[in-house]
Amino acid sequence: xxxxxxxxxxxxxxxxxxxxxxxxxxxxxxxxxxxxxxxxxxxxxxxxxxxxxxxxxxxxxxxxxxxxxxxxxxxxxxxxxxxxxxxxxxxxxxxxxxxxxxxxxxxxxxxxxxxxxxxxxxxxxxxxxxxxxxxxxxxxxxxxxxxxxxxxxxxxxxxxxxxxxxxxxxxxxxxxxxxxxxxxxxxxxxxxxxxxxxxxxxxxxxxxxxxxxxxxxxxxxxxxxxxxxxxxxxxxxxxxxx
Length: 242
Known about the structure:
With 242 residues, the protein is an all-alpha fold.
């Protein structure tokens, strides 16, 4: 015989079965780019700009280093305007020290944070002379040990001056990596490391410039020019305009 179901005590209602809430569908993010899509994107970038160049003006690795240090929180055009006279007077660490901090400060006063930057330029020039024989070092560790030099600056110098496969993530490149879905990340370092992982080696030499120029002139912060974007069919941005 089967078991008899227990009856509720007199005056008490049977316990109600609580309905389980329906499982919510998991939110799906954009699909990662396939290797073939990444290859195609950089093929197009190369077709548009076979030899991309940075917009900072310099004459040697030392002046490049100084220009990048000065470019923090400043435009390349503004830095170039100030450094033309500066580099004409001092294009080596020795000449910069001879010029002196007050004169350097006066020559770059149109650039934001010019007082602290002048101090860093003199200090890094001294370190280059005393620790590196007046030459710009070719390792990230040595560059980042210089006053005013962080990871982004070191990456720029290693890439442009020495041809290293580095990617400097500025605000433009950070935006492009996240907006397009090519290399999403919460920090510049995360975006940098993801780009180093996904960008094909044969495009690494110029990837830094292609992406920065794309962010500066096409994938702009406020009004991205989606109709002229060469990778608009690959881009994962849900708000893109085609």
